[in-house]
Amino acid sequence: VVAPRITKLTLTLRQKRQLYGIRRRAAPHEGVALLLGTYEHKRTCAKVIRISEMENVAQSSSTFAIDPEHHYVILTAAIKDNLEQVGIYHSHPAPPYPSGWDLEYMEYNPCVWIIDGIVGSRHQMRAYQLIDGEVYEVQIQTILE
Ligand SMILES: [Zn+2]
Predict the structure, then answer these.
(1) Half-sphere exposure (CA, 13 Å, Cβ side) for 142?
(2) How far does residue 91's CA lie from ligand 1's centre (Å)?
(3) Residue 108: which pLDDT band, with cuts at 50, 70 and 90?
(4) What is the value of pTM for the model shown?
(5) Which whole number is the average pLDDT over 54-60?
């Protein structure tokens, strides 16, 4: 099954700040969160409704891992509320581009991957989706509410 390509992901300013908090709390390790939400416009746009902060059980600054049981609990609760996992967020103490490990993991999780990294001395969030071995950049739209 080829996942539909997502061209845009919408976050509220508040959610963006929430993600920055997750990054700061996890530092120097990579911070991780699941993005639960809905798809719109024939599944070409993703809208984030809920953010679930996850523990980086890898305790690493170059990779991350989440507990599969915790993941399952979060997904079950999301489905109950008619939400889907539209994305995965993680932070990098490096530029916001998928690492080799990320690319491998993205193959099994064809949702939007937000990487919160550093360009020069500034934090920058970028989003990607891997479809059929091809990396596509996804536009992040920030809205007030
Ligand atoms: Zn990464």
Answers:
(1) 10
(2) 7
(3) confident
(4) 0.95
(5) 97
| Residues less than 5 Å from ion ligand 1, measured at CB | 99, 102
Residue 117 CA to residue 94 CA, distance in Å, equals 5
Say how many Å lie between the CA of residue 62 and the centre of ligand 1.
7
Average pLDDT over residues 51-70: 97
**Amino acid letter for position 16:** K
DSSP string, 45-109: EEEEEEEEEE--TT--SS-----HHHHHHHHHHHHHTT-EEEEEEEE-SS-SS--HHHHHHHHH-
CA distances from 21 to 41, 74, 91, 121 (A): 30, 20, 11, 18
